[in-house]
Write a structure and sequence with these properties.
Blueprint (H helix, E strand, L loop, with lengths): L2 H12 L5 H15 L15 H25 L3 H23 L6 H8 L14 H23 L1
Helix pairs in contact: 1-2, 1-3, 1-4, 1-6, 2-4, 3-4, 4-5
């Protein structure tokens, strides 16, 4: 799943707490739960198709930018901020675990939910991009609506 919905879900989960550490832990749990929502995941392993790599790079920058905007938006609430940051950063940790096999932070749990040995394909993923984006988009924009009402 992309960074944006993980950031929003983590910020929502963190917003239920007053403590930034509890918010960060809630963001981590939200990441695992969000990965259970059926979703589409682009094939980042396709190294032959240059145009696809460029498109995926552009989409990643847009996704990352939206995630950063969410973190800026929730920054007045430290628990929501840390929830959003950890919710999104869990994928970075899992990626490092996949590449280097020794990155120790959150990967021991997260790697099991992502199953990178099978290139990220598991029962929660959908092969159709349009259908696979419905769940994450609903969660992301529903979460933004909730955060807007709660924080402002």
């Amino acid at each position: 799943m992309s960074i944006f919905p993980h950031t929003v879900a983590g910020a929502v989960a963190g917003s239920f707490f007053d403590n930034p550490i509890a918010g960060g832990m809630a963001g981590f749990v939200s990441h695992l739960l969000m990965d259970m929502v059926p979703h589409w995941e682009p094939d980042i392993y396709d190294k032959k198709n240059r145009e696809r790599k460029v498109l995926m790079g552009i989409l990643l920058l847009i996704d990352l930018s939206l995630g950063i905007l969410v973190l800026i938006f929730v920054s007045p609430n430290p628990a929501a901020f840390w929830g959003g940051l950890v919710g999104a950063a869990t994928d970075a940790d899992n990626f490092l675990q996949m590449k280097f096999k020794s990155f120790p932070l959150l990967s021991k749990i997260g790697i099991k939910t992502h199953d990178y040995e099978n290139h990220g394909r598991w029962h929660g993923q959908i092969s159709n991009p349009v259908l696979g984006m419905i769940g994450p988009v609903i969660v992301a924009f529903g979460g933004l609506f909730y955060l807007f009402l709660k924080l402002h």
